[in-house]
Amino acid sequence: AQTVTQSQPEMSVQEAETVTLSCTYDTSESDYYLFWYKQPPSRQMILVIRQEAYKQQNATENRFSVNFQKAAKSFSLKISDSQLGDAAMYFCAYRSASTGNQFYFGTGTSLTVIP
Amino acid sequence: GAVVSQHPSWVICKSGTSVKIECRSLDFQATTMFWYRQFPKQSLMLMATSNEGSKATYEQGVEKDKFLINHASLTLSTLTVTSAHPEDSSFYICSAYSPLPNEKLFFGSGTQLSVL
């Protein structure tokens, strides 16, 4: 199984400010996909953003953007203009493009948004 | 609306009984479904991968005779926890995989199992 590491168990951000969540992964593959999922208190997993490894351009979705550093195997999530509804657990995930459809998740980062 | 329906959302059962959890993809055909287990404030642990019409592939350490998975159709996968014990109490999440070009992993809303 691939290893996905989130080194920040907890993070906090002031409302309207910007926060960056870290994720690193270990793989010997060259083609894969990376994801950030959000799990609010309802525990429903929600896709935040997706990145294909073969694309150099960083993915963006409204207030959410990633900093994908393939050589460093780093995939951080930046949340701009943080809102109270952004408070949740955030999971980084990896999927191989060639060895099955399994998604491997990091340990998660709990984000608190301070009003 | 939800594209993956998971039922029930919570269940309480007595030790020794079996519990079945259903996972349905509502508006697409899921050739692959995954079952995860999540302990409080922890990550999702992949239990097994379920492919339609074939036997599920279990992750190391997951007892296949205890966690029976059936994926008889492209829209339905079931997880049966057999002879449940208190240590099986957990939050179980299913997900359905939609392949390229619009690859996504859709999650069910989860099932909280409490075994007394």
Secondary structure blueprint with pairings:
The complex is a heterodimer of chains A (115) and B (116).
Chain A: E1 3-5, E2 10-14, E3 19-21, E4 24-26, E5 32-39, E6 46-52, E7 60-61, E8 64-69, E9 74-79, E10 88-96, E11 103-105, E12 109-114
Parallel strand pairs in A: 2-12
Antiparallel strand pairs in A: 1-4, 3-9, 5-6, 5-10, 7-8, 8-9, 10-11, 10-12
Chain B: E1 4-7, E2 10-13, E3 19-25, E4 32-38, E5 44-51, E6 57-58, E7 67-73, E8 76-81, E9 90-98, E10 104-107, E11 111-115
Parallel strand pairs in B: 2-11
Antiparallel strand pairs in B: 1-3, 3-8, 4-5, 4-9, 5-6, 7-8, 9-10, 9-11
Describe this structure as you would to a colleague.
The complex is a heterodimer of chains A (115) and B (116). Chain A is mostly beta strands and 115 residues long. Chain A is built from no helices and 12 strands. Chain A has strands at residues 3-5, 10-14, 19-21, 24-26, 32-39, 46-52, 60-61, 64-69, 74-79, 88-96, 103-105, 109-114. In chain B, strand 4 and strand 5 (44-51) form a beta hairpin. Chain B has 116 residues and is mostly beta strands. The interface between A and B is medium-sized, with 25 and 21 residues.
- Measured between the Cα atoms of the first and last residue of chain A, the distance is 39 Å
Work out the helicity level of chain A.
under 10%
What is the total tally of β strands of chain B?
11
- What structural class do the secondary elements of chain B suggest? mainly beta
Strand content of chain A: over 45%
Quick one: overall form of chain A? globular
Number of strands of chain A: 12
- What's the SSE pattern of chain B? EEEEEEEEEEE
Query: Uncertain spans of chain B, ≥5 residues at pLDDT below 50?
Result: none
